[in-house]
Amino acid sequence: MHIIPLILIILILVFILCIRPLLVSSLRRGHARWVTSSTRGSEHGILEEEERLMFHDEEHDTSPRQDSDQPLRSSGDRTFARGHFTAEIDRWKHADARTAEEIEIARDNIAKLQQELSTSVSQGVELQRRYETLSRELESARLFLNTADTFADSEVIQMLTKLNAELQHTSTLVADRVVSVFKLDAISSEPEQQIVVNRTSGSIGSTLVQFLRSGERADFEVPMYLQIAFQAYLTHQLCWIVSSWTLDSGCNAFINEIYQRLRETEKQGISGRWRSLTRVYALPTCVNEPNSLVTPIITGLSDILLAAGCVAPKSDIMSELSSMFENKILTAVSLAGRLNQMIGGVVSGDFEVFVVRPGETFQGGYMEEDTDGSGNGLQGTPTAKTVLCTSELGLTKRVQLGTGEKETKMVIKAKVILESFLDNEN
Which residues, 6 or more positions from 314, have their beta carbon under 8 angstroms from its beta carbon? Predict the structure, then answer.
């Protein structure tokens, strides 16, 4: 009975001795695989783990060693493991070095790309700026070379007809009202009045001024003669507004001289567009601020009354005329400014308004005698050929023919009053 337990114990010991090497070898192989798969392990940690396992094996080995080569194999395994993991560490170091080098190269490439991007952005901004500049220049060139008329010829003619009608109506209204307010019997040769006479003669002609001062007229005829004088003056002033480039006389003459040279050498499309743009930017006052031109016109009307012998002070005359006729004169000035703008908008030809200067010989090609509507009243004798004054504005259009030559066409003849009208009335 005591033998059987002893035999079992012996068999168990023999079994343990047989399978121990296999267990140790399996553990070592598993340990090696685990170390190989690790990328962050250190050689020192690996050796400590190996010694720990060996110590654990020896501690549990209670039987006598049957294989004298086992310690040697364990030492060889450690040497192999040490070399293997040293090689792995070196390989990872080399890999880290290559990675660091690649990172540095990538950084350099990123810096270069950033520099190229910054340069490209700057070039893009510059190209955008140049594009906008060229677009504005192209638009300006397109606008300058556009030869389409903004206004039709018929619109210009209608506007001039309306302006002439407004001139006649305003002149008649002023003449009828002033004779009931002011007395015209103070003709003198004093220096101050002579200055007024000279100034008035420059706009309506000396013949008409001298007739107003001569007293060779009946009282009932005074309104008619004043109406002729006022209409001649307004025609002269508004013709200047319609024809002017600017309200400065010196600049106006300078610009007109340039334009005359330009239209003699350039094609109609270029000279017409130049005139159109210059009219737009050089003369905005009579279009946007016509009030500034009303006072000078009222001053001229006051001078006519003073030259005709008005006894009231000039300040009183101007005050009375302003209160009664400022709106009517403003309307006429506004129409003249609008006509200036419309003429500038015609590129296909050069519209020009004109008056006939007092003292010129009558020419039926561009003048016609003014009448009272029935063919009588303002018409002179058939033999009279000297112009007293202009009563309505005329209009011409200068166009360029297909051959390149320029031709002036008469659109509306200027209406004039002949000097013989004064003789007929007397």
Answer: 302, 303, 306
Lay out the sheet containing 349-354: strands in order across.
349-354, 394-400, 406-412
Q: Is the distance from CB of 242 to CB of 293 less than 8 angstroms?
A: no
End-to-end CA distance of the chain: 185
Q: CB of 332 within 8 A of CB of 174?
A: no
Nearest to 398 by CA among 386, 390, 381, 410: 410
**pLDDT at position 67:** 46
Q: Which residues contact 151 (CB under 8 A, 6 or more apart)?
A: 342, 345, 346
Q: Mark out the alpha helices in 283-379 (DSSP H runs).
A: 285-288, 294-307, 314-344
Residues in the chain with pLDDT < 50? Answer: 31, 34-35, 38-43, 46, 49-50, 53-73, 373-377, 380, 382
Contact 341, 287 (CB under 8 A): yes
| CA gap 290, 233 in Å, rounded | 18
CA distances from 271 to 140, 239, 266 (A): 15, 22, 6
How much is the pLDDT for 57? 46
For residues 152 and 215, the answer to whether their CB atoms sit within 8 Å is: no
Beta bridge partners of 415: 368, 392
- pTM for the whole structure: 0.64
Could you tell me which residues come within 8 angstroms of residue 386 by beta carbon, excluding any fewer than 6 positions away? Answer: 359, 360, 361, 362, 418, 419, 420
Paired tokens of 139: 């638009």
The pLDDT of residue 181 is 86
Q: Find out whether 290 and 330 touch, Cβ atoms under 8 Å.
A: yes
Task: Supply angle C-alpha 278, 283, 286, rounded to 5.
Answer: 150
